[in-house]
Amino acid sequence: MIAADTSVLIDYFQGKNNAQTDKLDDVLAYHLLVLPPTVLVEILSDPFLPAKFVHEIEELPLLELTENYWQRAGINRSKLISKKLKARLADTLIAQSCIDHKVSLITCDMDFKNFVKYCGLILF
Fold it and tell me: What region does 31 belong to: left with phi over 0, alpha with psi -120 to 50, or beta?
């Protein structure tokens, strides 16, 4: 299973071609995509998301939150903030879901590299 960040899904649905959307296309072809719950919330919050994509998104499996998820997310975010690194709350929650399930993340957001270096996130 492989997860995708919100920005990659938006690029994909807008028909943009880049390395991340190409990877996402391959992952979708093999039915390997899973969503962190925060990505589902972010993507469905887009009032301009076409209805056909809403249905596709709602059909994708979600990564379940694991025991003590919130505590680990807070600790990892604190770790990055203490190093004066950017750790947005939504990014933290997405990263923690992937870390807990040992699922790689497709993203074009360079802020996730902090979670790779200090928290164990794996990028695809």
Answer: left
Cβ 35 vs Cβ 3: under 8 Å: yes
Question: How many domains would you assign to the chain?
Answer: 1
pLDDT in tens, 39-90: 999 999 999 888 889 999 999 999 999 999 999 999 999 999 999 999 999 9
* Residue 103 belongs to domain with CATH number: 3.40.50.1010
Alpha carbon separation from 13 to 2, 50, 67, 82 (Å, rounded): 18, 9, 33, 36
pTM to 2 decimal places = 0.95
Task: Give exposure, 13-46, as e/b (b: 16+ Cβ within 10 Å).
Answer: beeeeeebbebbeebeeeeebbbbebbbebbeee
Which ranges of 30-83 does DSSP label H, i.e. alpha helix? 37-44, 51-59, 69-82
Instruction: Residue 110: give the domain boundaries.
Output: 1-124
